[in-house]
Structures are given as structure tokens and as C-alpha cells.
Amino acid sequence: MDLATIIGLVGAFTMLVMSIFTSGGTIFTYMDLPSFLMVVVGSYFTLFINFGMSEALGVFKVIGLTMKVPSFGEQAIITKLMAFSDRARREGLLALEEELEDLDDEFMKKGLRLVVDGTDAEIIRTLMETELNQMQARHADKMSIVDAWSKLAPGLGMLGTVTGLIAMMKNLEDKSSIGPNMAVALITTFYGAIMANILLIPMLGKLKAHDAAETQVKEMIIEGVLSIQAGDNPRILALKLLSFLAPDVRKSVEAEILKD
Predict the structure, then answer these.
(1) Contacts of 135 (CB under 8 A, 6+ apart)
(2) pLDDT tens readout for residues 151-162
């Protein structure tokens, strides 16, 4: 569970509620079913127009990823690549073949399989970078749904504002309708702003951070695989891979894997 996301959501909504109460209002003042239906539900259904059925239905699964802290096991990856490098230098590249079947990381396994098969380094890089690019494209497709929703929700909020104002202007003689129509006009914009600025845009930012972190790990694996093929010393390999980590993380990992 990503506590940062939970803290952010709870904190943002708490401050919103506190601002409502400290300004003399109540939470019920801002609760309006027509506005909710138009902005939240209406903007969601526009995703079915913009995207396919499976993509629109899967948007909640994508958003759910912001509630999890991804773990790519960078230290374990570096340690594993160092072990492969050491064995390859001692026994030759073909000696790695028997260990590949037990390797959990499919991306690393494919790269090392190419190394064992004697594939040229440039071809290995091209193939692995192609797979990395395809992963990024899949991530971009998923993030584009959240991005679209973050833009459609405020748009539906503005549509609700126009709807409320039209209804109010057409019934100015009926003073009892002015209040409800004005509420729809303003609360729809309020809901659209909440959807975009508290929920969807921040969540999109976190998804982009997850994508960047996974991309960096994949790039680290590519360099590790090519370094093994080139016959680099395991410690040289480790230093190459450690350069992909943030300085604070690098120090702790370096102390662990280079302690001997």
C-alpha cells in the first residue's frame, strides 16, 4: 500500500472539508446529485466514446496502481547479474544456460538467452530496447485514459455550469428555481475541479513516476546483459549498474553488494 497516496487523498479532502466549515458552510451544501451525475458519471461514460470498452472499464484498475508501491528489486537484479557475470568469466557464456530456466525476470532471461546463443551485441540491444519501447507504449496507452478523464471531468463541469445558468435564465420569474439551478451551475464546476486537481492529475503523475522507475530498471538490465556479453569484471559491472540508482539508494546497495 502506498501511504503517500493515502495521506495525500485524506489530507487534501480533509483540508477541503475544513475550508468549507471554517467559511461557515456545511458539507451538505456541496452535495448535489444532478451535479455528481453530470460530472463524475457523465465524464466517465465519455471515456467509452474516446476509448474502447475494455479500456474504459479498466481505468479503475489503472488508477488502483497508484495505491501500490512498485518494487522492482534493483539490488536483487544487480546481485543476480554480478553472479552471472562471475560465472560467465569463469566457465564461459554457455554455462549460463542451465540457470536461465529458474530466472523469474522474463526480460533479463530473454536478454541472457540471446547472449548464450551468441547474438551480436547491437542486435541484443535493438531487440531489448524494442521490447522496452513497447512496454512504455502500453503504459502510455493506460495513462492516456486517466489523462483524458482529467480533462473531460472539468469540461463536463463547465457544461453543467452552462446548463444551470440556462435553466436559471429561463425561469427568472420563478424565484424558487433560481437557487437549485445556480447550485447546479456552480457545484458542477466544483466537482470537475475536484476530479481533476485532487484525484486524476496527481494520480497520473504517480503513474508516470512508476513508468519512469520501471523503464530505468529495464535499461539497467540491458546494460548488465551487454556487459556480461562483453566479459566485464563483476565489480565493474556492479559499478555500471549502480549508476542507475539514486545517490542515497546507491550508497546502501553498494555497501551491501560490494562488501567483500
Answers:
(1) 214, 215, 218
(2) 999 999 998 888
